[in-house]
């Protein structure tokens, strides 16, 4: 799937159904339906609703899986490591003092970011019409040809 120079590459649908990736991810990050922006996306901490109460868009077929925790670990790990190193340069703290500071920050920030990041991933999947959001069910990407028993 390669686009020529100046040509727009469309993923997962016709050109008439453009979905803004940034807007969908922003709505999901804020815990709102990526389609309409007014319905709630989560019914509990990281459990998404089956369908949007405002517009009826189905959300039960998304596949965020392990991607949101991976993104959260990457973000929090970089921030905490940078904060630890900056603090260690400025203040001579013992290991126990660093643990008392950075363990709670790591746990709290990870828990605080998990739901918004999962919402953004669901918004990304909706905008790119992945995993059933484009009106078609998922199928295998590499379907093998039928076996030739004559050989």
Summarize the structure.
With 151 residues, the protein is mainly α. It has helices at 21-29, 67-90, 95-127.
What features would you describe in this structure?
With 151 residues, the protein is mostly helical. The chain is built from three helices and no strands. The protein has helices spanning 21-29, 67-90, 95-127. Helix 1 (21-29) packs across helix 3 (95-127) and helix 2 (67-90) runs antiparallel to helix 3 (95-127). It is extended and about 70 Å long. The chain starts with 20 loop residues before the first helix and ends in a 24-residue tail after the last helix.
Q: How would the blueprint of this fold be written?
A:
Blueprint: H1 21-29, H2 67-90, H3 95-127
Helix pairs in contact: 1-3, 2-3
Oligomer: single chain
Mean pLDDT, rounded to whole units?
Answer: 85
Could you tell me the number of beta strands? 0
State the shape.
Answer: extended
- Termini separation (Å)? 33 Å
Structural class: mainly alpha
Uncertain spans, ≥5 residues at pLDDT below 50?
Answer: none
- SSE order in H/E notation? HHH
Helical stretch count? 3
How would you characterize the largest beta sheet?
none
Portion of residues within helices: 40-55%
Features:
151 residues; mainly alpha
């Amino acid at each position: 799937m390669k686009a020529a120079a100046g040509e727009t590459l469309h993923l997962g649908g016709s050109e008439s159904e453009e979905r803004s990736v940034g807007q969908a991810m922003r709505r999901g990050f804020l815990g709102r339906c990526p389609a309409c922006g007014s319905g709630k996306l989560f019914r509990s901490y990281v459990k998404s609703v089956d369908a949007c109460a405002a517009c009826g868009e189905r959300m039960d077929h998304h596949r965020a899986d392990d991607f949101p925790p991976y993104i959260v670990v990457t973000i929090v790990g970089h921030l905490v490591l940078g904060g630890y190193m900056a603090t260690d340069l400025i203040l001579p703290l013992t290991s126990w003092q660093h643990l008392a500071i950075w363990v709670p920050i790591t746990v709290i920030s990870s828990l605080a970011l998990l739901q918004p990041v999962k919402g953004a991933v669901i918004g990304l999947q909706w905008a790119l019409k992945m995993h059933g959001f484009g009106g078609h069910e998922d199928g295998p990407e590499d379907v093998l040809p039928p076996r030739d028993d004559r050989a």
